[in-house]
Design brief:
Elements (H helix, E strand, L loop, with lengths): L3 H25 L5 H14 L1 H26 L4 H18 L1 H4 L10 H27 L4 H29 L5 H30 L1
Helix pairs in contact: 1-2, 1-8, 2-3, 2-8, 3-4, 3-7, 4-6, 6-7, 7-8
Length: 207
């Protein structure tokens, strides 16, 4: 009988196959850009994490930071803001996945790093959402940058929800299926965001 983890892996792998075929087709038509490659990278890392072990979880955290950094950069963030956001997210991801990377810590409560990481992501989302609303009300700005910031805010929302449920499950010493579904959903959102923006970039280049 299959487990929920195997269902998550199958979902990501099937979507990954779709994106890979789509990217290959665009490659034949010479319409591939950076976002296409990023979508393939996100799904490749996530769908092979079961086999890559510790390095897979490290790679997944780094790729997540890279995707967020690119959306922040194309959304109008300066270099320091982009690096701060990406670096902080990678740190929070390492804290949340520390058991997979380092194992149990003898001198620290098992849930403390996870709770701290989830708080960091919640604060980043709240900050991003606040800036997003205020900047949009103040000025219409560039439409492309606005769409990138919209995707970025949504990615951070899904990620903060996923980590919040992980922290809640840890403190209550239970297994959260919701966090597993949200974690899978986050991977798919990252891939969809990259694919959608790849199509936009292709259309802009053609026109």
């Amino acid at each position: 009988m299959a487990t929920s983890g195997e269902l998550r892996l199958l979902t990501v792998q099937m979507f990954g196959l779709f994106v890979f075929i789509l990217t290959t087709f665009k490659l034949v038509l010479n319409r591939v850009n950076g976002f296409d490659a990023l979508a393939v990278l996100v799904l490749a890392v996530s769908s092979t994490i079961t086999y890559t072990g510790v390095y897979g979880y490290i790679a997944e955290s780094v790729v997540f930071g890279i995707v967020v950094a690119i959306f922040a950069m194309t959304g109008g963030a300066n270099r320091r803001g982009m690096l701060f956001l990406a670096g902080t997210l990678i740190l929070s991801e390492v804290l949340i996945k520390y058991k997979r990377i380092l194992g149990e810590l003898d001198d620290l409560d098992a849930c403390t790093p996870i709770v701290f990481g989830s708080i960091i992501q919640a604060c980043l989302f709240a900050s991003m959402a606040y800036n997003f609303v205020n900047e949009h009300e103040a000025s219409d700005g560039d439409k492309n940058e606005y769409e990138k910031r919209t995707w970025l805010t949504f990615i951070l929302l899904v990620s903060s929800l996923s980590t919040a449920f992980k922290a809640l499950a840890c403190t209550h010493e239970s297994t959260s299926i919701t966090s597993l579904y949200l974690d899978t959903f986050r991977v798919l959102v990252l891939a969809v965001a990259c694919v959608a923006n790849a199509e936009d970039e292709t259309l802009e280049n053609v026109s």
